[in-house]
């Protein structure tokens, strides 16, 4: 395997591990850990962005391997999204019980 495949593959595998850690942080309701993971994720997303054009030079086999891993990462990301929506729905429910306003917007005082 060449440098392009190795670099992109490493970034995708790291993103998979970060997504799994974000899922765990969500389950544990650990917002500080979740925020740190989101910040860490940016570096690896930047790597993928930088190597995007170079991926055109990959062999069909390398592309197929990467595609499988990226699809897995996307599936886990969708699960994380559903989990976060459930958590936010739960928080909105608790806020409504307490009589606190439920707002999903950003109040900048305008």
Which of globular, elongated, flat, extended, rod-shaped describes the shape? Answer: elongated
Strand content: under 5%
Q: Helix content range of the residues, please?
A: over 70%
Largest sheet composition:
none
Tell me what you see in this structure.
There is one protein chain. This protein starts with a helix and ends in a 12-residue tail after the last helix. The model is unreliable at 106-110 (pLDDT under 50). The chain has 3 helices and no strands. Helix 1 packs antiparallel against helix 2 and helix 1 packs parallel to helix 3 (60-98). 77% of the residues lie in helices and 0% in strands. The radius of gyration is 18 Å and the shape is elongated. By secondary structure, the protein is mainly α.
């Amino acid at each position: 395997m060449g440098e392009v495949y190795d670099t992109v593959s490493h970034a995708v595998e790291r993103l998979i591990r970060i997504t799994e850690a974000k899922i765990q942080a969500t389950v544990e309701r650990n917002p500080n850990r979740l925020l740190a993971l989101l910040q860490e994720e940016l570096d690896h997303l930047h790597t993928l962005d930088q190597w995007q054009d170079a991926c055109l030079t990959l062999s069909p086999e390398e592309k197929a391997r990467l595609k499988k891993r990226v699809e897995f990462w996307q599936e886990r990301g969708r699960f994380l999204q559903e989990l976060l929506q459930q958590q936010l729905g739960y928080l909105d429910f608790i806020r409504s019980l307490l009589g606190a306003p439920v707002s999903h917007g950003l109040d900048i005082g305008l």
